[in-house]
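## retry 2 of 3
previous attempt timed out at serialization; input unchanged, resubmitting
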Amino acid sequence: MIEIKVPTVGESISEVTLVKWLKKDGEWVERDELLCELESEKATFELNAEKAGILHTVAKEGDTLNIGDLACKIDETAARPEGAAAPAPAKEEAKPAAKAEAPKAEAPKAAAPAADVKATPVAKSIMSDKQVKAGDVKGTGAMGKILKADVLEALANPGRKGGAAAFTRDAKREKMSNLRKTVSRRLVEAKNTTAMLTTFNEVDMTRIMEIRKQYKDTFKESHGVNLGFMSFFTKAVCYALQEWPAVNAYIDGEEIVYHDYCDISIAVSAPKGLVVPVIRNAESLSMAQIEAEVGNLAKKARENKLSIEEMTGGTFTITNGGVFGSLMSTPIINIPQSAILGMHKIQERPMAINGKVEVRPMMYLALSYDHRIIDGRESVSFLVRVKELLENPELLLIGHDPVKALLEL
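## retry succeeded, writing output
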């Protein structure tokens, strides 16, 4: 009997939560097959079968396990079931099952909405398994996200539409995930341990939007990635950080740690909460490389496949509340970093341009910073520099006006 224990997943992580068993107790498992899904305070990962055999689960779904705790056992001496010996019998067995459940011919139509709807992975799995349509489930999570309890409620009351339960006085309790607990703890810690202040400015997005409109198709053909806003902002931030190094530093005890590199953290809304993957050495990357890295990290975040290494060690954070429609906000510092830049919704507003009123696409920028290390002059100058670079994207090529660089001014 082989014991499968919770492995070490990070220096600071001492416990994990068993989210879901992917194989059932008493079921035959092959070597390296995924057994269960575990969630730490920073990431989600799976346990694999070390050998083929019969699975005997020990921990239950929802249990909190310490590193080294026993999750399950595998009886490698058990005889291999006949059905598991070759794939052919499994296909033959599938045919009568399909006949016996003829109504499931509509399954692809029912499963398609479940794949696109905002729902937790467990809820999606149940919806797909039970062929529950998204329209029959009322999501009670943040922004209407469908939770496991919502799907179970729909299954228990199949004749009642999602909207019919809108006026009940029901209440339910749900255990906070490790990730949510960590986010909560870090946000409170940031508020309580930093002298946080926010400064605002606004940027005219006209030139960037013109460039994107003119070159987005050519850019996609040449590099295989879309030309988004994040590459412009990341480039601008990197130049500004190199000019104002205090914004790219943090306090460690009684010392200030400065960085010659820019590891930019990008706040991403994932199914299990906010995660902040890092673009390493962003100052040395091209626009296409930045866009590719942003796309790769965002995809991993949505699929809960980010590693701990990909979410640690950033020196500065960019968060985009504009994707949700936020016009202005005061972002909270991602400790131990000293500053965070908040992007917001692009809103057309009348602006005074050379004595005339013109309608321009404007975006409010917010820089929250730790006043213990960053003075007002540095924070305001940093944000003004970011604004200048964004309103004049040509400067992003070398960080300076090309003519002035030519004249060495």
